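Work package 3, deliverable 3.1, input record:
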Amino acid sequence: MNEQSHFRIKCSECPIRHRAVCSRADDAELAVMEGMKSYQTYKAGEPILRQGDEMKFVASVVHGVATLSQSLEDGRTQVVGLMLPSDFIGRASRAEAQFDVAASTDVTLCQFERKPFAQLMAKTPHISERLIEITMDELDAARDWMLLLGRKTAREKIATFLSMLVVRHGLELEDGTTPRLALPLTREKIANYLALTLETVSRQMTALQKDGVIEFTDRKHFNVLDPRALQLATGNGEED
Amino acid sequence: MNEQSHFRIKCSECPIRHRAVCSRADDAELAVMEGMKSYQTYKAGEPILRQGDEMKFVASVVHGVATLSQSLEDGRTQVVGLMLPSDFIGRASRAEAQFDVAASTDVTLCQFERKPFAQLMAKTPHISERLIEITMDELDAARDWMLLLGRKTAREKIATFLSMLVVRHGLELEDGTTPRLALPLTREKIANYLALTLETVSRQMTALQKDGVIEFTDRKHFNVLDPRALQLATGNGEED
DNA sequence: CGATACCTTGACCACTTTCAACGTCCGTGG
DNA sequence: CCACGGACGTTGAAAGTGGTCAAGGTATCG
């Protein structure tokens, strides 16, 4: 199922060195973490954890995208978090997974056994301080998302989602249009993230294209033709 | 506007002593916090912070209920968090309020100046460890709420809300029915919490009463006549 | 006793979902 | 190399849920 990855990155050369839970660790602390960590990789689509599973590890996402999701018994599901590189999965003080976690793209995790990590945290304020910030950032993001889920229309949700992709890639050009962007998820996954159906996602994307706001080059790639119109369509107002 | 409260509680006698951010502090640490804290009270309905305000303080809720909320420019509003006693407001590392905070009932906060608190945290793992737990609990709660906002029907939302009130008060009786419970919020506030309109809140409560699940004694008080039916109406399945 | 805020109910409407059919892309194996 | 199959995506028509607008009812506090 899950294949143990064979590469080991040195912490000092790790792509998330400056943002992850270890970002404030000094050389001595880093050496300790270096000795505790292990890597694990998951293929796109693979489950990483199911709600209720025992968690022996906590982990940082090194690369790839994982989703946290939750379901009702009849199958309705809601994505409740996107885990991007440097995000942190699990809690030192709890052994049970609260959500389903799945690899959305190929994912590499940097894992630490839970109990040794808890001990390390107790001795290393640099780590717990950074973990507080990471967790509070996720909490703020979750609360922003609640406004979208509760109060935005389908068109606003789609525009917000596309706008996020633009911002995330930092690709706004002076002259207006943006370079071609990739949609990293299927229509169904976008629907589960935005609390829509896949049909509505499809229709609203088509509508934004008809209105000249965006343009699809193929199913997975689009250009923003009118960034200002896209921003207005998010419902957030002129600036954000 | 905000009146400085005149009472001072000793930390050792504080009602949230065992759950708040200070819960793991030892006597020496508590003595330091005792010297840093101040109390502030707010009347029901009063604003505590507006999004974008400068925050000089972080604070624990001592008693009362505060709401975090967020709005779109056209006035649509979503409550994104209920702050109950022992919950923590603000971040040591950020000066700007991310959300509107308002007192829902009369509220007392135990406040600490931000910068001294940040320094204290750096020196006191007991505090930062507990803050991580509090923050992660809120994150889990926010994610649970996302499932409700995104995927539950109006009836399920109302049933979930009423069910929460039952659980929170720990009042389930063996024989089925429960003692009279108070609705702590107006229909409008409930609507902003559940992402509905106040009319829909009213209609769904009436519907649950017609179906014999609950019974209103007056506008602010109800009995649960059929706890099992209420549980089923939440959409969470038989057990939860 | 009147003013005001809160709540209920009805009629109508809009938006999103549901259900269904069809289209497109892509990898696998004949 | 092409054909097939399966996953993914689009579009249409109909239905249903919740929202909007409007009117009237009820509680509470001067």
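The helical segments of chain A are 27-36, 114-123, 125-151, 154-169, 187-194, 198-210, 227-233.
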